[in-house]
Amino acid sequence: MKRSYVIKPELEKIYPVISHGKGIYLFDQEGKRYIDGCSGAVTVSIGHAVDEVVEAMYAQAKEVSFAYRSHFSSEAVEELGAKLAEWAPGSLNWTFFVSSGSEATETAQKIAIQYWQERGKPTKNRIISRWMSYHGITMGALSMSGHVLRRKRFVPLLEDYPTISAPYPYRKPDGVSLEDYALQCANELETAILRVGPEQVAAFIAEPVIGASGGAVVPPDGYFQRIREICDKYEVLFIADEVMTGIGRTGKAFGIDHWGVVPDMITLGKGMSSGYTPMAATVVSDEIIETIKNGSGLIMAGHTYSANPQSAAVSLAVLKYVEKHSLFEKAAEQGAYLLERLQELAAELPLIGDARGLGMLCGLEFVKDKDTKEPFPLSHNVSGRVIAKAFEKGLLVYPAVGGLEGIAGDSVIIAPPLTITKAEIDELIGLLKGAVESVQQELR
Ligand code: PLP
């Protein structure tokens, strides 16, 4: 290739050029085939090059691609909003459309602050989040994120929001039951609210299953139920960040559905359009919308591409595909098989300390010593090396490293499209095993 003028994540690296994709596979221009074992960035949940989506994209483009949201609504966006209201729990019936997960969480942050202003409580403007978390890369979203690696250059410019620990069952203190651990972690929220003062706290934000900063860390039962109780007690809104977990990824419509808890807002992205177009959303409860409607009547957020008909039509086609092919159920079923195969690998390979996950969102954590769970120094770049080896072998896996930099969390995410078959999972496991074994050899 001639010289590149495109800024890539690693400036010196030469990236292969993508040619095409089909189902769980991607092909580069050299003809090399890759299993998309992480759906890109846990995004392509229905697989690549699905005809129905491409047709919906074309049909909408022939009519109109862009109409500004302050001028027009569109059939596609109305139908999409209705579908999300049908799937979302409780009274989460209203959707604000944006184009990325970071915009979705930042919109939720703003709506939370505005909601309390409209209720005459303008001092409620702090957002509590968790140290092990990732809610996006823009400054507001990063302020709510704990991801050390992504924050550290910008810390002086970020809002100094309070954080609490997230439950991390693999590293739970010895001698404490999972049940008690869940409550201890949740009760940290109460302590944080009381320390800051309930009159200062607008919302608490959490990922139902921790993604990029932890590698598919699933909370114990009881955790989110207690979080909901605490939020209710102190008038704090609960935002479930489902950018990674939403739209069936964990085997239910939303990750939080596993615990029967109803948040006040849900943020979505990634799987919402399966990567066919940039699309994301903040789904909001009746109570919040009614309050704003009866107050200023105007939500102070929005972007040029919010609710554009083109992205809405594509996302709607994706949701219809998910429904038609029962992909929530498939993710639960095939995800259980994937986890079983990953746990076999963990039992066999000394480098893997933990294999965990929920539905089709799984993770492996690498450790130096399985008994003590001592992590490798980050300078060993173990997960980076596994990712590179897997790439060489034709398998894509996603990094989840640097969330708790220097403490733990040298992990990768395995999250293939929800459409993956058992035979394809076996193929994925074979390549992954080879990659981990190669890195194990190097580290000897
Ligand atoms: N929230 C969560 C839970 C995420 O995993 C991500 C991205 O990985 C984001 C927010 C940010 O989304 P985006 O990269 O689309 O801005």
Automatic annotation (TrEMBL):
Q: Which GO terms describe its molecular function?
A: transaminase activity
Coiled-coil blocks:
none
Q: Which PANTHER family match?
A: AMINOTRANSFERASE, AMINOTRANSFERASE CLASS-III
**What is the originating organism of this protein?**
Brevibacillus brevis
* Descriptive protein name: Aspartate aminotransferase family protein
- Asked if the Swiss-Prot or TrEMBL record annotates the protein with the keyword Isomerase, the reply is no
Q: Which family does it belong to?
A: Belongs to the class-III pyridoxal-phosphate-dependent aminotransferase family.
- Keywords for this entry? Aminotransferase, Pyridoxal phosphate, Transferase
InterPro entries linked to this entry: Aminotrans_3, Aminotrans_3_PPA_site, PyrdxlP-dep_Trfase, PyrdxlP-dep_Trfase_major, PyrdxlP-dep_Trfase_small
Q: Does the keyword Endoplasmic reticulum apply?
A: no
Report the Pfam families cross-referenced here: Aminotran_3 (PF00202)
